[in-house]
Amino acid sequence: LGYTFQLYFDFSGYSDMAVGLGWLFGVRLPWNFDSPYKAINIQDFWRRWHITLSLFMRDYVYFPLGGSRRGVYRSYVNLITTMLLCGLWHGANWTFVLWGLLHGVYLAIHRLCQLAISRLYPRSNPAGITIFISSGVTFLAVVWAWVLFRAPTLSSAKEMWWAMAGGNGLVLPGGLLARM
């Protein structure tokens, strides 16, 4: 969680400073972050996170691959390919490649679920608890993927995931443990 927020505050902070400095000189730069951790699904996350990179990847990778114009299956392949390339853009390391692959799979699963839900419940509109759960699942999926972004090796990512899942035991602060 610490890394999750550090990454956001670091990226968003310097982007906001650049936007503000641009305004001082009369240059209008685009916003780059729009409260991404409030996203209700992974597609919404990518609309809010590093907006300029997301738009670049959409316009210069996803659309030229055919976007969603060549059928449902092909759109999944295009999403995953685009995110794989986004991972490579961040670094030539297997952790970045897998980070991109994971986000591509997240986006494909989201799109598949959207399709299934729209066919099963054509007039449904998500309400409070559904949005709350969806936002929580999205946040956890993003936190899970940040491990790959931060880890220097795949084995260290595996160790971190193991620890996050409680594989090393659960340690609570002394006062909290006594109250339980």
Pick out its properties:
180 residues; mainly alpha; 8 helices; 71% helix
Describe the structure.
- This protein has helices at residues 2-24, 42-48, 51-62, 72-90, 94-120, 128-150, 154-164, 174-179.
- Helix 3 crosses helix 4 (72-90), helix 5 (94-120) runs antiparallel to helix 6 and helix 6 packs antiparallel against helix 7.
- It has 180 residues and is mainly alpha-helical.
- The protein has 8 helices and no strands.
- The protein is globular, with a radius of gyration of 19 Å.
- It starts with a helix and ends with a helix.
Number of helices: 8
Cα Rg: 19 Å
Would you tell me the structural class of the helices and strands?
mainly alpha
Q: Residue ranges: pLDDT <50 for 5 or more in a row? A: none
Task: Give the N-to-C terminal Cα separation.
Answer: 24 Å
Strand content: under 5%
The overall pLDDT, averaged over residues, is 92
Number of strands: 0
Reading the helices and strands in chain order gives: HHHHHHHH
Reported for the largest beta sheet, the result is: none
Which shape, going by the Cα principal axes? globular
